[in-house]
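Worked example 3 (structure in, sequence out).
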């Protein structure tokens, strides 16, 4: 027994050394892997700059575009006034459409007690972290990873749509949530003054972690205060900081990138109060009408990137109201503005987050447009994990009779987001 003690002690010592080395070497190895991945990403974007990927609708010359518009709508090519009318008709006559909500408000208001939750430490966790803050304020006791497991089960999923966040609240919690389009700054103030934090999706220019480039990307904010004297909102920003001040005019510019969409999380007991504050935004169709009119007005008052988004928002609003034909005309115009933008200002990620253009082209039978647009969008990412883009390309390929390519796209969509209902249904319809 005594002879075995040195052997046992040697084994224990060796185990301790191995454990120590594993603690030291693993972080070093992971750090090296992380740096290699960063350099691979930098090299990829150096060779294939995403800003240079351009989608142009078929028949892009001015004469061809005019002919196409005339063929679609009859008579001569429409003036911009054409685009708004189908949306207004679709919503219905007599619906009040205010340019902004008008309510007597205090000069400042702050909602206290909203816990701050950072998105850092997990990849692309802005959406789960921001929603977790809104839920926690209402007494929810979960974690940001609970949300992430449902809305982005694959880390490399590029985007979580506001509809997915709303579904999570309504299906997975005891709370309720709504989202609407066409919000304005006065409405945000009204909701905050009434005690409702407002979650908005916006487009902002941020330095990319891997490449250091300043580029446009989608981002969520939870609005919890405002101050007219300072002309700022108080924002819980999962990327930057708690109680982060952002100027009114900057919010207005960034919010335009997402058609002024907003979301409110609330308890069922607060529903009547919320509806009273929302006013016309209680109704989904009316909110789309407000968004359409805002976009239409901005077409003639904006330039460069803002004008691109004005046309894109008009197309989105028309598609949301069921007017795919009008939406295609607006999207065609938006995409013709895009190449003229300075490369560093091009929002190449817009189709990562907003899929109404896919829907419009698909509904109008312009399947090759869908394929080209989705392919261009997927080409802007080194790891193109975008379930919506794969889904719509698969649908277009299926419509053109390319079943194998369609099936492959639906499977890629599900690899990006296991359980993605639309792709599951599409595969089921194909006999899978």
């Amino acid at each position: 027994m005594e002879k075995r003690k040195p052997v046992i002690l040697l084994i224990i010592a060796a185990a301790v050394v191995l454990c120590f080395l594993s603690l030291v070497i693993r972080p070093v190895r992971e750090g090296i892997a992380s740096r290699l991945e960063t350099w691979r990403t930098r090299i990829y974007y150096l060779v294939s700059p995403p800003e240079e990927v351009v989608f142009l609708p078929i028949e892009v010359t001015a004469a061809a575009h005019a002919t196409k518009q005339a063929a679609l709508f009859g008579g001569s090519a429409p003036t911009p006034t054409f685009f708004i009318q189908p949306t207004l008709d679709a919503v219905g006559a007599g619906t009040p459409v205010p340019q902004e909500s008008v309510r007597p408000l205090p000069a400042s208001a702050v909602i206290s007690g909203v816990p701050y939750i950072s998105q850092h430490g997990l990849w692309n966790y802005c959406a789960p972290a921001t929603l977790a803050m809104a839920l926690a304020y209402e007494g929810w006791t979960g974690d940001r990873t609970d949300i992430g497991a449902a809305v982005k089960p694959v880390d490399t999923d590029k985007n979580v749509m506001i509809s997915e966040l709303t579904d999570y609240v309504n299906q997975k919690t005891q709370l309720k949530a709504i989202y609407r389009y066409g919000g304005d700054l006065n409405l945000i103030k009204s909701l905050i003054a009434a005690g409702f934090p407002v979650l908005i999706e916006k487009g902002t220019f941020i330095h990319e972690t891997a490449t250091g480039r300043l580029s446009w990307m989608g981002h969520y904010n939870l609005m919890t205060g405002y101050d007219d004297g300072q002309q700022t909102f108080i924002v819980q920003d999962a990327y930057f900081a708690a109680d982060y001040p952002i100027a009114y005019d900057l919010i207005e510019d960034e919010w335009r990138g997402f058609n002024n969409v907003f979301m409110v999380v609330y308890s069922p007991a607060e529903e009547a109060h919320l509806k009273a504050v929302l006013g016309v935004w209680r109704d989904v169709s009316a909110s789309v009408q407000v968004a359409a009119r805002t976009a239409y007005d901005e077409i003639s008052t904006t330039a460069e990137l803002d004008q691109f988004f004005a046309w894109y928002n008009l197309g989105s609003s028309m598609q949301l109201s069921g007017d795919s034909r009008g939406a295609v005309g607006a999207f065609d115009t938006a995409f013709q503005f895009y190449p003229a933008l300075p490369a560093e200002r091009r929002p190449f990620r817009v189709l990562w987050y907003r899929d109404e253009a896919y829907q419009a082209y698909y509904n109008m039978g312009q399947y090759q447009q869908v394929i080209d647009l989705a392919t261009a969008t997927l080409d802007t990412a080194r790891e193109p994990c975008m379930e919506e883009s794969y889904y719509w390309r698969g649908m277009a390929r299926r419509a053109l009779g390319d079943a194998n390519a369609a099936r492959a796209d639906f499977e890629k969509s599900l690899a990006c987001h296991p359980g993605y209902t639309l792709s599951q249904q599409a595969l089921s319809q194909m006999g899978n």
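Notes: The CA atoms of residues 58 and 369 lie 7 Å apart. Residues 26-31, 33-39, 60-65, 67-101 have pLDDT under 50 and may be disordered.
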